[in-house]
Amino acid sequence: MTFLAILPVIAMTVVAAENTRSSMEEEVMETNRANMNWASIYLGEQFARMNNLIYSIQISDELHQYLALNQDAPAASRFDEQKAMFNMLNSVYYSAGNYVFGVELYLKELDTLFTFNSMESRIRSVPDIPAAYHELFEQHKDFTIINDSNDPEKFHMTRSMNRFEDQAQIGAISLEVKWAEFNQTLELLDSRGDYAVYIADSTGSPVYQPNKEIQPSAEALEKLAATKDSSGFIRTAKEYVFYHAIDPSGMRLIKIVPSHVINESALETMKYGLVVGGLATVVSVLLAAFVAWRTSKPIVRLANSMKGIQLIKDKEVVRSGRVDEIGLLEKNLHGMASRIREHIRDNYLMNLEKQTAELKALQSQIHPHFLQNTLQMIGGMVYSQKPADSYKVIRALSEMFRYIVRAPDGLVPLQSELDQLEHYMLIQKQRFGSRLEYKLEIEGGLSDCYIPKLSLQPIVENAFVHGLEKKQGEWKLNIQVVRLDHEVTIRISDNGVGMDQERLAEMQSRLSKLSQQGDRVWSSSTSIGLVNAASRIVMHFGPAYGMNMESGEGQGTSVTVRIPCHTGGEIT
Fold first, then answer.
1. What start and end residues bound the annotated signal peptide (predicted)?
2. How far apart are CA 424 and CA 426, in angstroms?
3. N or C: which terminal CB in the chain sees fewer CB atoms within 10 Å?
């Protein structure tokens, strides 16, 4: 019987593991398709900006005047035109930004090579085509991207100059660019650190890969070389391969997700399911043996003691018809269990409705508070930062909105809450620059740790509003997450102006009241986000957990949050 009882547990474990794997696979597919699309668009825009620099040289008046210059022209005229060419190259070089290391202009018919970079600006005669331009001219290409043979962190982007009448190649323009310009976009695609993300040529072979520890398999490279689609997905024995064309460079953006990333969650589900099933089998066998041995004597004693119990029943109890002590025990237990279940159900529903109403009220205050502060900060940055910086901030804000809208309103994984906080701090770092020093330290695994949604951000916002923004000089904000057994401590410290002992005593008093059941702290003061976050933690996990504050005038403030770490559901 025990074996038959455990079979459904094993079957449900296998089904749950497969459902987990399928859900994880679908999520990875949808997320990576969307991420590859926007990343390739952004990379294409970066290549387009480089193309625009080359086109600005091709259509410049200085270049056309130099080409039109007669070979017999006076030396003074030739000197003036050459000077004008260097001025034009100088203008292009410094308008490109710090990702362009140099600009070269090769004129084939004049056997002339102009070179301009931060170290030199010169013109020299080259009777033969330079080695860097062989592929362009020998294969009659319009455009090439070739890695620097001396420095793998750079590449040369070269475009041919063609005569309008017969499209003959008369020269070429080359930009020396550092690959690090694309690192930020590639790092966003490699959020876990165990993916292979790289820029490839048209066949899928890596051209630039920041993380070379993870290489694509031979099967993946073979399938990439065979496909001609601009974007899509390829499945191999060990990998999920996503690819997308980068227009107008003719290159591809490749992301390879190992299969173990998707399978590991299913394996965890199966492992724990089998462990629980095995433990349940052992426990049930031992318990059955113990109960069978101990039942005979207590059941007679219990039946005798229950003869005097008279319960008022709402309806007749269906009995087995036995007239011995077991029958009497059955009758009384049915009546007692029925009334106890009714009482528990009534009290549970009342408490559940009360806590649900309180949680909804608290969240309705936290959401506007968060959105108002963040949008005011973003509005100021749009007018003061570069477009690229603004894009990063908007991207971070987009991920924050996605979290607010899509994440459940109750408990969320602690790691998701920390990721949300990273997006918020990215915005703050863009706003305050080197003045703000931020550090996040995590000790211990957080995979089974949950916290009420938007509990940490109000604490960090209070650190800025009440501590750091009133302090002159350098700002420091440290977040330390430490797991010890089944409990997690989150400590958020700043070096702001702190608070006096009277204000600290008031805040500690309000936080301590949260541990009293039924006594919720409601306020309209400036610290409402902090108090509401503490109240939500107490309502979810009970009075043993919550928030504590330490501060000293001129010494900064430290807020410590304690939560349990063994359940995704409510404890209270």
1. none
2. 5
3. N
Of 404, 471, 402, 393, the residue nearest 437 (C-alpha): 471
pLDDT at 519 over 50: no
Structure tokens, 276? 């629980």
pLDDT of residue 477: 94
CA-closest candidate to residue 460, choices 361, 370, 554, 536: 370
Residue whose entry in the numeric block shows the structure tokens 């916002």 = 461
Closest CA to 490 of 451, 520, 529: 451
The C-alpha atoms of residue 130 and residue 133 are separated, in whole angstroms, by: 6
- Tens of pLDDT, residues 124-135: 999 899 988 988
Phi, psi of 241 (to 5 degrees): -110, 120
Say if CB 107 and CB 98 are below 8 A apart: no
Contact 104, 113 (CB under 8 A): yes
> What are the backbone dihedrals phi and psi of residue 453, each rounded to the nearest 5 degrees, phi first?
-55, 135
Rounded CA-CA distance 518/358 in Å is 10
SS3 content of the chain, % helix, strand, coil (to 5): 55, 20, 25
Q: Which residue has 């990343």 as its token pair?
A: 39
464: DSSP letter: I
CA-to-CA dists, residue 140 to 168, 256, 299, 448, angstroms: 9, 33, 98, 59
